[in-house]
Amino acid sequence: MIRTFENRAEQKISGFQSPAADYLEGRLDIASTLVVDPHSTFYFQMKGGALSSIGIHDGDILIIDRSLNPEHGAIVIAFVNGNFTCRIYQIASKVPVLKNDNDVIFQTEINTLQVWGVVTSICRNVLPKSLKTGKYRHVCAL
Amino acid sequence: MFALCDCNNFYASAERLFRPELQGKPIVVLSNNDGCVIARSEEAKACGIRMGDPEFLVRDLIKKFQINVFSSNYVLYGDMSERVMHQLGRWFPRLDVYSIDEAFGWLGGINNLNSYVPKIRTAVVQNTGIPVSIGVAPTKTLAKLANKLAKKYNGVLVLDTDEKIASAVKDFPVHDLWGVGRQYYKKFEALKIETVAQLREMPEMWFKQNMTIMGQRMYSELWGRPSIPLDEIREATKGITVSRSFRNYIESPEILSEALTLYASRLAEKLRAQGLRCMYLQVFLYTNKNREDHPQHFPSHTHKLLIASNSTTDLVSIAVKVAQKLFKYGIKYRKAGVIATGLIPESELQLNIFSDHDGGKKDTVSAVLDKLNLAYGRGTLRMATEGFEKKWRLKHEYLSKGYTTRWSDIIKVI
Question: Is A102 an interface residue toward B (CB < 8 Å)?
Answer without folding.
Answer: no
